[in-house]
Amino acid sequence: MSAALAAPAPAAAIDPSTKTTPARGARRMTRTAWGFLGPFAVFYVLFLIWPVIYMFISSLFNTTLVHQGLGSFAALANYREMLGKNEFWVSMWNTIYFTLLTVPPLVFIAFVLAVLANRVQRGQWFFRLAFFLPFILPSAAIALIWNYIFTPATGLWPTIQGWFGDTNPQSVLGTPDLAMVGIALTTVWWTIGFNFVLFLAGLQEIPREIYEAAAVDGASAWQQIKSITVPLLGPTTGLVVLLQIIASLKIFDQVYLMTGGGPGISTEVVLQLVTNTAFTDYRVGAASAASVLLFIVILLVTLVREIIERASAKSKREN
Amino acid sequence: MSSPTSHRASPRFGRRALLSGALGAAAITTLNACGSPLSAGLVGGQLAPGTVQYWNLFGGGDGVRMITMEDVYRKNHGGPSSLEAATFTWGNPYYTKLSLATLAGSPPDVAVAHLTRATNLARGGLLSEITDADLALVGLSQSDFSAKPFEKAKTDGKLYALPLDTHPFVLYYNTDVCQKAGLLDSDGLLKPIQGAAEFEAALTAAKKVTGAYGLSVSTIADQATCWRWFTTLYHQQNGATEFFGNNGRELTYNQDIAIKTLEYMQSLTIKKELVPTTNDYAGAGTMLFTGKVGFYLEGEWEITTAQSVKDFKFGMTTIPQIFDQPATQGDSHSFVLPKVKHTPEQRKLAMGFVKSMLDQSLTWAKGGHIPSYKPVLDSQEYRDLTPQKYYAGVVDYVTYDSPAWYSGSGSTFENIIGAQIGLVEQGIATPQQGLDAAVAQFKTYVNTADPLA
């Protein structure tokens, strides 16, 4: 797996003499390419593009699951309802809180683990396996595992708390202030493997000669990490951070399975509000409005990152 | 020069394609003939003919009892493959799955539904009507059912559900504690309690004996019970109006009576300290079983738990008339037939299953429920069933939740108001604050278009 390491490789050298008219072979290649892409393109439009368009359209109507068609026109009533509903803002905050709790550990700890694993001479395969293995488990499996661990009074977690002297620990998933932390901990354990593998691949692309040259110049291990590893892994880190933030904003599985949004609505996330509104209350239109609002938030995050990256690239070029 | 492999590849490919195609066709035909779930899923076929698919939401003691009844059906109808039953989590998760399965065109043949939720399913077009012809298929008729739940099972004058039972909110009492408190008569039964003064006197007497509290009721993480206790007291007062009108489009509750009810509930926990402020579902029952309270309020289904406690003597009775008129919260379980294209044979099979369950209402009644099937309700065995017979008469004045698309057992309505009632009972919110918080959340629902209309 080759991660984006240094500046993107210079554009493939195209012989300028053939640039004006595409050869007949190239045209046939294009048609063949589209032929292969065709089935996937159909599924992509049907199951990804069209539902997104439908989401925007139905958010302006009182669409319900039990009636055919779009229902009566509601203009911005669904948006007004969602923006005026306390439950919506609580779920939005819960989602952002979850993102804040998971993104830094998932980036930082994965980086540290990758740096450490990279230094292992023999048996590196074992660490790669161990850290990546949880990632292949389905969400239902990890939800069950961690529900057991967090079982009040008798689970592994309260037992360990007991070893440290806390004889009557609060139930993690039953306490409003702690439930989200418990879910975040589960998520970090579950998905750290993915970022770990990305970072490890990126690390292994850094040529050994750079480290050797630095060592010859007298750089310590820490200085090597600071001045070589971190900057050269910049693009990887940026990618990981963006992917992580987007995935965290779309969180649903483990929250629904572990606490169902409880206690009360202290762990209810936006996608759970959407699911409840669409499938339990049958109100697809209102749920679409909430989905569009989440979509806007994710779009904003991506835009902010784009701006930051462009600004830093510009400043790098000016230097 | 073409490579040798490309020349020989064509006929080999041709033979391979033919063989794999034939294998695939044979596999599908065999699978289809076997009627396995795999083939039914792949080809959209019918599960083995003669199998009834049945979904319910019964866990705990009820769940065990239902499985016993299902096994009797299986025994009488040709073995284990005659019935495929599935149990789902109680409340919204169950109804969501049932709705989505019906909308997708592959629902179960028979499903359980609370009558307060069946109305909404019917209004959403998810249930098929049960006609007199359907009833006649298995020898049933309208007169075989108790009047009140049967009326409730109708939506817009059409029948969409067949009631199995009514399950009201009842009063449990610890026989030993009440004996010592002098509250029992010569037969060992609770002396009738009438009015708030007598009620509180009984609680105080029990508190003197236990040294802790008089009555326990769940107040934490149990929105349903909080709502049940509130609505029981609310409807016992003269002038109490329905909480919603016009299918949930208007709030029609009586503000003064609602506040008075919340104040009364809070006085029992905070001012008079007759009821503990913090108790969850299991804890409230445990207090009765261990003699820390003399009385316990919950649905009648807890009889199974109470009977399983060793050497525990208890009684059950209707909730006393504390205010102006008798009233008790309750709901009914019923059987519904989700809307799907059915052949007459499948319809007869489904109705046959429902009849078999109704015939076993006595087994079900042993779990505390009051059967709606008159032949069992009027039978001597049920009339002798103790302590069920002491509260069987409550069916006539049970109050169901007001109809609204967001109302019913385990619904958003109960969750919202139950949470606030719990806070009032714990003393964390004043009656006015609790009611205002709940109403503020209801206003959103009242103002949104009814998705079932």
Enumerate how many helices of chain A there are, as a single number.
13
Biggest sheet character of chain A: none
By CATH, the architecture of the largest domain in chain B is named: 3-Layer(aba) Sandwich
Under the CATH scheme, the architecture of the largest domain in chain A is: Orthogonal Bundle
* Poorly predicted runs of chain B: 1-9
Shape of chain B: globular
Number of strands of chain A: 0
Mean pLDDT of chain B: 88
Regarding quaternary structure, what we see is heterodimer
What is the fold named in CATH at topology level of the largest domain in chain B? D-Maltodextrin-Binding Protein, domain 2
Name the CATH homologous superfamily of the largest domain in chain A. MetI-like
The amount of beta strand of chain B, in percent, is: 5-15%
Defining key terms:
heterodimer, A: 319 residues, mainly alpha, MetI-like fold, 2 domains, 13 helices, globular, B: 453 residues, alpha/beta, D-Maltodextrin-Binding Protein, domain 2, 7-stranded mixed β-sheet, 5-stranded mixed β-sheet, 19 helices, disordered N terminus
What does this structure look like?
The complex is a heterodimer of chains A (319) and B (453). Chain A is mainly α and 319 residues long. Residues 1-13 of chain A have low confidence and may be disordered. Chain A has helices at 24-58, 77-83, 86-119, 124-132, 139-149, 156-163, 176-205, 208-216, 221-232, 234-249, 253-258, 270-280, 284-318. The two termini of chain A are 31 Å apart. Chain A has two domains: 49-84 and 283-319, no CATH class; 92-281, MetI-like fold, CATH 1.10.3720. Chain A is built from 13 helices and no strands. In chain A, 70% of the residues lie in helices and 0% in strands. With 453 residues, chain B is α/β, with parallel strands linked by helices. Chain B folds into two domains: 52-163 and 333-371, Periplasmic binding protein-like II (D-Maltodextrin-Binding Protein, domain 2, 3-Layer(aba) Sandwich); 169-330 and 398-447, 3-Layer(aba) Sandwich (D-Maltodextrin-Binding Protein, domain 2). Chain B is 48% helix and 13% strand. Chain B is built from 19 helices and 16 strands. In chain B, strand 1 (52-56), helix 3 and strand 2 form a beta-alpha-beta unit. In chain B, helix 10 (223-235) packs across helix 18. Chain B is globular and about 90 Å long. Chain B starts with a helix and ends in a 6-residue tail after the last helix. In chain B, 46% of the residues are buried. The model of chain B is unreliable at 1-9 (pLDDT under 50). The interface between A and B is medium-sized, with 22 and 21 residues.
